[in-house]
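Re: your question from the hallway

Yes, I did run it. Sequences:
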Amino acid sequence: MHTLLETHLPTLKQASDACRTRAQWSGFKESPSTRLHGEEAPAAGKRAFESLLGQPFELELPGVTGHLGEEVSPYTREPLGIDYPVADPEISCRAGLEAMRSWRRLDPDQRAALCIEMLRALESVCFESTHATMHTAGQSYMMGFVGSGANALDRGLEAVVYAHRALTDLPGHAVWRKAFGKTDVALEKRYHFVPRGLALVICCASFPTWNAYPSIMANLMTGNAAIVKPHPGGILPMAIAVREMRRVLAANGLDPNMVLLAVDTRDEPVAQRYLERGEVAIVDFTGSQRFGSWLEQNLGNKRIYTETSGVNSIVIESTDNLDGMLDAVAHSLCLFSAQMCTSPQNIHIPAGGVETDQGRIGPADLALALAGRVDARVGNPAQAAGLCGALQAQNTVELLARLADRAADVGELLRAPEPYAHPEYPNARTATPLIIATERPGQDVLKEEHFGPVSFVITHADPDSALASAAATAATRGAIATHVYSVDNDYLDAAEQSFVDAGASLTCNLTGPMPLNFAAAYSDMHVTGLNPAGNACLTDLAFVADRFRIVQCRWPQGTRTTT
Amino acid sequence: MHTLLETHLPTLKQASDACRTRAQWSGFKESPSTRLHGEEAPAAGKRAFESLLGQPFELELPGVTGHLGEEVSPYTREPLGIDYPVADPEISCRAGLEAMRSWRRLDPDQRAALCIEMLRALESVCFESTHATMHTAGQSYMMGFVGSGANALDRGLEAVVYAHRALTDLPGHAVWRKAFGKTDVALEKRYHFVPRGLALVICCASFPTWNAYPSIMANLMTGNAAIVKPHPGGILPMAIAVREMRRVLAANGLDPNMVLLAVDTRDEPVAQRYLERGEVAIVDFTGSQRFGSWLEQNLGNKRIYTETSGVNSIVIESTDNLDGMLDAVAHSLCLFSAQMCTSPQNIHIPAGGVETDQGRIGPADLALALAGRVDARVGNPAQAAGLCGALQAQNTVELLARLADRAADVGELLRAPEPYAHPEYPNARTATPLIIATERPGQDVLKEEHFGPVSFVITHADPDSALASAAATAATRGAIATHVYSVDNDYLDAAEQSFVDAGASLTCNLTGPMPLNFAAAYSDMHVTGLNPAGNACLTDLAFVADRFRIVQCRWPQGTRTTT
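Structure:
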């Protein structure tokens, strides 16, 4: 343990400083380059992934009653053929509670060191995990490595920072003296940091690690055992994570059951069986707004942290960089086939057109230009593969077909969602962006989230109504990332105030190589908790401070021999 | 504002340091002595109180539709005759939301300075407030001054500290730079601290200020307007507080509607009308476990912070100071007629008796000795008046009669709850403690809270079962303050672990002048949130961190002129 502390506490300090300054920092290797990882690592990671296929997944868990697995690769459309151990919920919960008892004796520094050791273990299998993410979520290789790897690990470390901060806000022990009349009273006080109970971490299919790592870390730091419940279509990345975390726990003489796995199938979901149990005190949920909202409304005796989804908007009023703006927006419409919680859907423009460095451009021309930029990005299959990846779910293919069919009801079909030919995986489930233009902003279809590469270019009477519509949708339907383009300072100020009121974070005039979707650990606040897109932020003090409680014990000073 | 900052920020710093060290500190005058307040202050405060009687209460509120008031003094049993303005909930909420818009521009330091100015204003009317508390809650003069005055103000300041800490955890503004490929991206980021909405602060009848001050302060600091909903039987102390806070807001050019008042009667309660409104995002509740639990379970879309009640236990295994222990316990059974959330109810002792510095004493003798110490405390009416005060509610009189009548069903009536003759108020609603001894620990009546001067001396087979029973009651029925007396280190360790598991704070072997009930601001953690006695702690990071959310706005560095 001493070595772990020496190795990892400097990292904790650096990460904590970054959280305070909100300046750029990363604790992990953000590129898959062999210069960082060595020549062998990428191929070895791929082989490790391949060796898992068609096999029972090797993971010892308490209370195993059978095996299951129904994952299908979005790239090959073949079953992965991996069976995972199924644990009995009651035995699993009992094992988690038991593990919490031994974990309790660790102080915040020790917990942080162990958590960072786990994150390092996850980094050591980053290539294996990348392929696991690709063949379950459909992410591209680069996104699987960076977004689901290094960036997700940074989010995990960020949660360690905040939990450590909350746990060290009080001393463990204090002496208190006060005169009552003529008598001095001196008391010793000990503060116990008591976890709430078990935490069920429910993961999404398309980007599981990015939310699950911080949730697991927040729970472990605050003493709650984490029961990881992956999406039935995306078990493997989380099974690998659970395997590595349990390995670190065991290697350090700790009960591995601080991290457990609960797998299920679409036909026989298991979450409810855990939610019914009183010892499950915390739920971390990433997924649909419907289920997230149900959890928030109906489980008043548990702490619920949700990140769901929303309808993200881009409002375009004017720009001094038309090409840069079109490129940035087109990139974001393609990136991971817009299967990200930060992907934009609604592009709001004024009927009078947009003033740009290339002159005023009308709504129809702007929409066409945008579609053209998308075409340019997906015309080359290799480029499309790197940018769009594959569609995680068959549902999304069907959604695209339905929306394309009824495009004329909504407005004008600007761009049809054709599959592209993936150069490496001929059977890959792919689609390029569907874009529909409309001059009728009031339609209900525009207020719904359409998960996948779907966007609407919506023409409004004027810039103010464009902004008001985007903000109203954010407030009522949720939004995680919104954007505005304007060279008018007053318009930007109004946009900032409108989106603050709607509880949606805003990015202004972003062009250049940083994707619109990018959210930086230690700097960007992700999900505000103020609109239906979720009730929690990854990661802030509120994300951690109520996962544990403080119980005190006090006694007259010097009257007790305690350890 | 500059002067306010200069005056009050040093106080904030001292209070913050106390919260970190948990050492003794107070920001307010903890004694009513004229040496601290001047010769005139006590009498002037009493006159101020008397001038309120039989009059409409002077308070301008938005949307007043009428007046009401039905308070009756527990000391005189006469109506106070004060009518308070009734505000229309919709207009009241609209006014609160409007006030929040101007409050927003204040930074955390400015908010803290204003909040401390409000606390100082409350201190300046401390004698008026003391009499208001006496004649609604039934507290004695000293308790009304210290417990409901200085100590409550300290709790309010403690909430200011934690909220300030949470609000300053992030900078308001940051610059972030990162290379994407060969391009450097530099973004400015602004973090908005956005309140959740309106907060309804529902107060209890017997000790309103102690919980309401921290709740109001936590809400104001985080930007949420506070709608104070006093108990219909205890409006006056909160109306005075609202009047003073609004006066400070107005005097500093701020919208006074950051603090509003919602009064009602027992027959026509108004809380539900506020709870139905979506803009009421936070509820701070002090009161019954039943309503608190209903709020927790059924208002999943609001943030609920509760302090309710529980069954507090004292476990006596052994002592090296029998006289000190008996005095301490007897004092606590009498203090404010045990109408405090920290009052003990169940006294658990082993059948084999208790080893003491005066030899082993059997359960029957111990119970009799305890009853004798109570007798000694309440035999002198002047002493009884200072210690017991009056019974807040007529219900309590009836409860005592019912329990005394059926004492033989439970065990043996050790001490009957006789009224004592209050020397100043002959009509005062008073009662001395009811004590029942029993050898049957399993009875349901022992697992319920009986609000008022009711206690049971419960004999168990052995010390371990005494402890187990007390801890089980705490876990399942809630407990806020528990006590153990033992000279055996191992027993103390076991007790500490048992109560930690039950989520109840523990005090060991307390004797001497500090009352068992005393909870020190900046040092003691009050309510753990781990058992049915409430879900929140006054005050910690969790009490404040989720009352506001963070919305960010980012833009390429240098591209925007912002204020």
